[in-house]
Design a protein that fits this description.
About 35% of the residues lie in helices and about 20% in strands. It contains four helices and six strands; from the N terminus they run ββββααββαα.
Length: about 110
Amino acid sequence: MTGLGDSVLPGGKVCTAPVNLIIRYTEAMKTLTATEASRHFSDLLDAVERGETITIVRGSRPVAEIGPAHRRTGADLRSALADVPPPDDAFSRDIAEAIALLNSEVGDPWGDA
């Protein structure tokens, strides 16, 4: 069953894109011209929010892909750093020395106030 503005894609998939947004569905990707993306940006964001990834084309050349943002969490960071060894003592000393240099070179600009 399709609703107002819905279209049936190859393979029987139903597209529920807004009536005024012209997304072209090919076998491999969904495309939108740069002009259409500009004129219907809110509708484009609605499609992305539904989980679609849209390729923006200028002429017939793809220039950008817009897709759902990936949520980043602390768990993602912990996972990414899981195999990274902790800093060694030399690293900690180097950081402490760099901070000491910064603090010694710049005095308190409000110290004489």
